[in-house]
Amino acid sequence: MKRKGLLVVLVMMAIAAIAGCSSSKGDDGKLVIGIDDKFAPMGFRDDNNEIVGFDIDYAKAAAEKMGQEVTFQPIDWSAKESELNSGRIDMIWNGYTITDERKEKVLFTKPYLENSQVVVVLADSALAKLDDLAGKEVGLQSLSSAADALDASPLKAKIANVSEFPDNVLALTDLKSKRLDGVVIDEVVARYYMSKEKGIYKLLDESLAPEQYGIGIKKGNEALLEKLQKALDELSSEGTAAEISTKWFGENKVLN
């Protein structure tokens, strides 16, 4: 009985060890990347319901460099850090703005793209500058860097009401329906929709805040961060990052 008992314990320990190794994120040959699948042109669904975008192509190229398979997992963007810390995803990679608050929650790669928070209004709107939003109805994506930028601006106290939406598409829909006067949104996203729906929108003259995008990785996983950053650096040096940027933006916007 003692020998049997010892054997059972050893088998259980071996199984636990194997399970522990297989669950080490980034070491099992597979990466799960959390995205907002309505964040064009960074990551979104095309007319065939396929997930496409700049960040999608960029992530695929980086994963190939790392010798790993990649899966894109649409998530509730307002719970992105919780998804990462729970282990359900390995990276947050979809126009993820680097902020001091987020640095306390996740590890970041070096910035790879410049962005700013801007305000979109309808093309026939009389609004021209940020101060014109005083007393107006404004929308934005909840728990986004747009919300952070507006919270940090004295403009917020002048706005009549701020409505929060699960994604930018819904906010822009309310803008087109004239239930909103303006939408605070990432400039890269705004310009994408302006290019697709010509004559519908315009940007106010001033921006709220400049910012930079990075990729978020769970704290404590420095090994995965180092491996990813090495792949990104190689994509920049060989010109692949520039090619992907030109495909989506018409120019190389990637930071070296």
From TrEMBL:
<dbReference type="GO" id="GO:0016020">
    <property type="term" value="C:membrane"/>
</dbReference>
<feature type="domain" description="Ionotropic glutamate receptor C-terminal">
    <location>
        <begin position="30"/>
        <end position="251"/>
    </location>
</feature>
<keyword id="KW-0732">Signal</keyword>
<keyword id="KW-0175">Coiled coil</keyword>
<dbReference type="InterPro" id="IPR001638">
    <property type="entry name" value="Solute-binding_3/MltF_N"/>
</dbReference>
<feature type="domain" description="Solute-binding protein family 3/N-terminal">
    <location>
        <begin position="30"/>
        <end position="252"/>
    </location>
</feature>
<dbReference type="InterPro" id="IPR001320">
    <property type="entry name" value="Iontro_rcpt_C"/>
</dbReference>
<dbReference type="Pfam" id="PF00497">
    <property type="entry name" value="SBP_bac_3"/>
</dbReference>
<feature type="signal peptide">
    <location>
        <begin position="1"/>
        <end position="19"/>
    </location>
</feature>
<dbReference type="GO" id="GO:0015276">
    <property type="term" value="F:ligand-gated monoatomic ion channel activity"/>
</dbReference>
<protein>
    <submittedName>
        <fullName>Amino acid ABC transporter substrate-binding protein</fullName>
    </submittedName>
</protein>
<feature type="coiled-coil region">
    <location>
        <begin position="218"/>
        <end position="245"/>
    </location>
</feature>
